[in-house]
Amino acid sequence: MAAEYGVETPPKVASVSRGTTGKEGTTLRAVGQSTKDQEERRYERAHARVQATKGFYIHASVFVVVNIALFALNAIVGGVWWFYWPLLGWGIGLGAHALGVFGFGGGGPWGQDWEERKTREMMDKEGGS
User: Fold this and answer.
1) Taking the complete model, does pTM exceed 0.85, yes or no?
2) Structural domain of 31
3) Does any domain span residue 110?
4) How many other CB atoms sit within 10 Å of the CB of residue 10?
5) pLDDT, tens digit, 9 for 90 and up, residues 16-66
6) C or N terminus of the chain, fewer CB within 10 Å?
């Protein structure tokens, strides 16, 4: 499954074993379950980052379209210029969204480490009750 999405699989590990006869034999161990879990987690994190980036681009596109429409409406109706107030407020929100998606790079106070730690805490709490 991971190969479909461009995630490389680690090579299989070779080990040398000696039996009671003293002869050497090379065996290939299958990739362990933990390696598969790690790959799956890497894929899920990458997919989540792509989804977050996509969400930001959709947000930015709607921001541009709506604010152009508000500017046009303000220009047609005339009177006091008010279009910049929603532009400013929404722009602050868009900036915060951008900072959350691109600025911290998974770090910061609520980054990837925090998410994983909280997920483990919730799983432990749920398993213990």
Assistant:
1) no
2) 2-13+25-105
3) no
4) 11
5) 445 555 555 544 445 567 888 888 888 998 898 899 999 999 999 999 999
6) C
